[in-house]
Amino acid sequence: MSSLLSIGKSGLLAAQVGLSTTGNNITNANTPGYNRQVAIQGDTGTQYQGFGYVGSGTEIQAVRRYYDNFLATSLRNAEANQASLDAYSSQISQIDNLLADPTAGLSPALQDFFNGVQDATASPASAAARQSLLSNAESLASRFQGMAARLNEIATGVNNQISSNVGEINAYAKQIADINLQIAGLTTSIAEPNDLLDKRDQMLTELNKLVKITVTPGDNNMLNVQFGTGQPLVVANKAFQLGTSTSPTDVSRVTLGYVTDAGAFTELPDKVFTGGQLGGLMEFRDGAMDRAQNSLGQVAAGLVTAFNAQHVLGQDENGDLGTNFFNPIEAYVGTNTRNSPASTAEVTATVVDAGGLTASDYSVDFDGTNFNVTRKSDGKVTQINPFPQTTPQVIDGVAYSISGTPAQNDNFLVRPTYTAAQSLTVAIKDRDKIALAAPIATAAPTTNAGNGKISAGTVDNNYLLPGNQVTTPSTLTFDQATGTFSGFPAGQDVTVTANGTSTVYPAGTPVPYTDGANISFGGVNFTISGTPADQDKFTVGPNTSGVGDSRNGALLAALQTKNILDNGKATFQTTYAQMVNYVGTKAREAQISGTAADASVKQASNAQQSVSGVNLDEEAANLLRYQQAYQASGKVMQVASQLFDTLLNIGG
């Protein structure tokens, strides 16, 4: 009777464990990270009774956790990609909204500014038109500054989120290391702490949403966690701590790296942080964010440089040569804080050529002999030659000046357009200083016998060189016998350009006449056309009545539609439009990729849940099955008790 009682008892205990396991599954059906568990039941063996073997009951061999590492890893990878795209999309949508706004964007302000230039050009003597131009210029500067400030706010927000993510990553890494130790202490050869395993897996899931990780098995049921290209985050029960620091070349930029217990910081490259929220933020910052700031600055720096270059070639209402309309743009130069203390090298960079500007950053490095300027967008290297310098060297529209005594491995970061938009300001405050007139005037006396005509004339940058400004009129006289002009300013060579071919005539040499050819000396340019008669005269002199003249104003207005940027391939508006289009395209790509990522997560989650998830219908059936088994085992014990009572009664 005792064997029957023991068998019933073992069945009762097995059913009880089954009920507990099923009940635990049901109550944790909505617990994040929970993997369903099943009580594995087996017989306890048989005993030989002379006539054969008789079973001795049942036992619970294990409570197994249904977990598929391949499916769990696939789900984590999908979630890391989803988190990365979500973080990227939420950030780039802010820039997209800022740049594409038809009222708050840059395009309306640019249009208003050049409308002001055109109005002033149409009425150069109008004080109201000139004042309106200055007001439009201030509004344009304010728009550039406002957009730059908003981009800086977004960049600051990204820095804060990066720092916050690093703190969360460190917290999860420590918790995983701690739970690794607990799991190792509780794991036996036949049993594992299922609840702790679920808790650890959930921590890995949350960590993976912050930065994409790789999980590998370690000793004694512990896990090792790496990120990037194999950088360790958790090894057994040791957690590596990440930290943030200020970039050695840009105080507004956060860098990431390892932090030791002693507080030492070892920087890691941005590219190792991929996937998850942190990966999305880094991709946004190093891609769309930098390009938006640099491209906006490229338009600002290009406008300032081109407009100033033309404005200084004009004449203001006081009869003086024009000055800078906008304050010049100085490129951002960051001196690496890790440069040798013995180094006294300094790098200055000034934007001088709008057409040569790019939206790239540059690294300036000293190799012990030479300074090399590396364009980061494509790796092109240009050597500063000679060094030490005698004059600044222009590279991609920026004049580099290096002074002091460098040390080997000195490094500087140059961002030509990075701060251009926020630093754009109007230099001229007096409307009389607007140089709408040309500084020279040409004339053909009515007494000329021929039908020769002379153009109004323009000046170029050479006119600004010392000694080239026209202070007295020069009278050019045509000699029909020799077909030449004489009377050009003494000491200045004359260049004649006809059909694309230029010929230089030394100072004092008669200049052959070619109908319609461009004639230039000392930065003064004009043409003479038609058929001049013998001794016909033409004068080139200073503009003494330029109040109503707007020749330079017309050239300033023409800058709006002139292909100036990108080596003469794009206007200010088209360059800005390209930036808006780039950001808009990236934002749309992120949205589309995000939708695909959501579908991938759903698919991976369904696959994982099909193995590890709790099916309430199935558990309800199990609950009924174990209940019946429990009742049946109880009945076995009841029968055994009754039989035992019968034997006792027989004996009595």
UniProtKB/TrEMBL annotation:
InterPro entries associated with the record: Flag_bb_rod_N, Flg_bb/hook_C_dom, FlgK, FlgK_D2-like, FlgK_D3, FlgK_helical
Highest taxon of the lineage: Bacteria
Entry annotated with the keyword GTP-binding: no
Domain Flagellar basal-body/hook protein C-terminal residues, every copy: 611-650
Keyword Nucleotide-binding: no
Gene Ontology terms for molecular function: structural molecule activity
Residue ranges constituting the Flagellar hook-associated protein 1 D2-like domain according to the UniProt record: 335-416
A cellular component annotation (GO) from this entry: extracellular region
Keywords for this protein: Bacterial flagellum, Cell projection, Cilium, Flagellum, Secreted
GO biological process, one term: bacterial-type flagellum assembly
Domain Flagellar hook-associated protein 1 D3: 439-542
Main localization (coarse): other
Subcellular location: Bacterial flagellum; Secreted
Flagellar hook-associated protein FlgK helical domain: residues covered: 92-326
Domain Flagellar basal body rod protein N-terminal: 7-34
Similarity remark: Belongs to the flagella basal body rod proteins family.
PANTHER family linked to this entry: FLAGELLAR HOOK-ASSOCIATED PROTEIN 1
Entry protein name: Flagellar hook-associated protein 1
The organism of origin for this protein: Duganella rivi
Gene from which the chain derives: flgK
